[in-house]
Specification:
By secondary structure, this protein is mainly α. It is built from two helices and no strands. The chain is rod-shaped. It starts with 6 loop residues before the first helix and ends in a 5-residue tail after the last helix.
Length: about 90
């Protein structure tokens, strides 16, 4: 699939979101209402994007596991269908 998400990219996006939240906390402590508003808007845009990327990565990982399990079950079935040499 051409749209596979690289885990390093997801981690980088998570780091950006954490950085924005850290800066928002610092702006709140500094009582900088303007910067806090800007960061709030950036977090509001960034957070759903990161959440979707994480969820997609989990779905892709689960799909790989399911595919491997399906192949293993097929292999076991094929081996079970052959007569034994006893």
């Amino acid at each position: 699939m051409a749209n596979n998400i690289n885990s390093k990219s997801v981690e980088a996006a998570e780091e950006i979101l954490r950085d924005l939240k850290t800066k928002a906390k610092a702006a709140n402590e500094a009582e900088d209402a303007f910067l806090m508003g800007v960061l709030k808007d950036l977090i509001a845009v960034t957070s759903p994007i990161v959440t979707r990327a994480i969820a997609r990565q989990h779905r892709e990982d689960n799909a790989k596991i399911n595919k491997a399990h399906k192949a293993l079950r097929a292999k076991v079935r094929e081996q079970g269908d052959t007569p034994s040499d006893d």
